[in-house]
Amino acid sequence: MSDTNAGTLEPRQFFLDRFALSDGTLEDTIGNAIARKADFADLYFEFRSSESFSLEEGIVKKANKNISQGAGVRVVAGDKFGCAHTDEVSRETLRIATETARTIADSGGDNTGISVHSTAPRHDLYPLTHTPLEVALADKIELLNHIDIAARAYDPRITNVMASLGVEQKIILVVHSSGLVVGDVQPLIRLSITCIAEENGVRQQGTSGGGGRVEFSFVTEDDRYMKWLETAADQALRNLDAVDAPAGNMTVVLGPGWPGVLLHEAVGHGLEGDFNRKQTSAFSGRIGERVASELCTVVDDGTIANRRGSLNCDDEGTPTGRNVLIENGILRGYLQDRMNARLMGVEPTGNGRRESFGHAPMPRMTNTFMLAGDSLPEDIIKLVANGLYAANFGGGQVDITNGKFVFSATEAYLIENGRITRPVKGATLIGNGPDALTKISMVGNDLALDEGIGTCGKDGQSVPVGVGLPTIKIDGMTVGGTQS
Description:
The protein is of the alpha+beta class. The chain folds into two domains: 6-239, PmbA/TldD fold (2-Layer Sandwich), CATH 3.30.2290.10; 244-480, no CATH class. The protein contains eleven helices and 25 strands. Strands 1, 2, 3, 4, 5, 6 and 7 form a seven-stranded mixed sheet that branches. A hairpin with a 2-residue loop joins strand 17 (404-416) and strand 18 (419-425). Helix 2 runs parallel beside helix 3 (91-105). It is globular and about 70 Å long. The chain starts with 10 loop residues before the first helix and ends with a strand.
């Protein structure tokens, strides 16, 4: 397949032509899937074309191009479901996959035929003139080489640069047993930059980057990639002078943007429908209850144009939406796919997502963030006599059942007498998601979304997501460090 303008592709016709199928094949397949009176069934077709490049030690060492395609069949009966998939799509392989999925779901009875009807997605969130794949290979390699040269020239203490670039276009088509047929063409680009700084035997690193469902020019226009490079380099250079982080219970201020990953992990996963249907989340059965400070309103919004976590429709064909999860501290709802929504007696929220045609959909986040408050960020800092300011995070671990989390800060500073002072290293934040929400005493007016690099893992599946946060003040959180 040539790299085709996303705006001119019609997914339904694309897959019918590519796999030599007809509307009759779609109708017969989805009809067979629910022939034993399953609650519902769906077909999911996918064609993905992607490229990835990585630079290290001044050399672009890897350049890959990958094309994958296939179809998945899911049959749902009660709280059971059967899934089967094939990467060789034909009328016969779809029949075999359908029978396999239907057997796993083990439903019984008879059903009537299906008449499929196409509909366009409700949104058009990424109408690109050119897909990221259309840019010449040489231009992508030149970008990485220029990043390496520019980073080393930025400061002689930058001794190594690692940069990776990934671009893709994914075409999907969902056929539901209601007869609904929805397709989408999803571009994606992600640039990550890591700078290594060394001085007097001390080595530190900083990381930045960005992207989204955008054209390749998004990375280069207005020297956007240079801003990410400088952010990564400055973070590494500042960390060279970092002192050991203190340990103990203290006031913690989270900076805007990427620190929203803590909200995503410590709170967001606990608000996904499957955990709450099974009563395994710390938020289970608490709709209408106060679960956070009245200053907190948390939203999951898959409809923000060109964002990494945004989608015209989810992987079940449901339009994405702006879902208010916590409003002024009160829990209002959960994130739902079709199966969990039906079992919980609510509507799906457009959050049914899957990594590929070989995976089952489940409730997942899109772009999750806390809305801005009224406080000026500088006023928040002024009210902290002794505390920690966390500007960037690395990895973290969360226990969904009780909300307990541990996060490592890759960029953090002491707050002393109302001023951000020395950078610290080795800081970890330890706490409980629901408990931390109740201790938020100030929320800044500076909401920022991340630059477009987030990837979320759940049950072995990874999907692109976005996070966001204004500056927030948390009164009392355990900080793990190296000093008593």
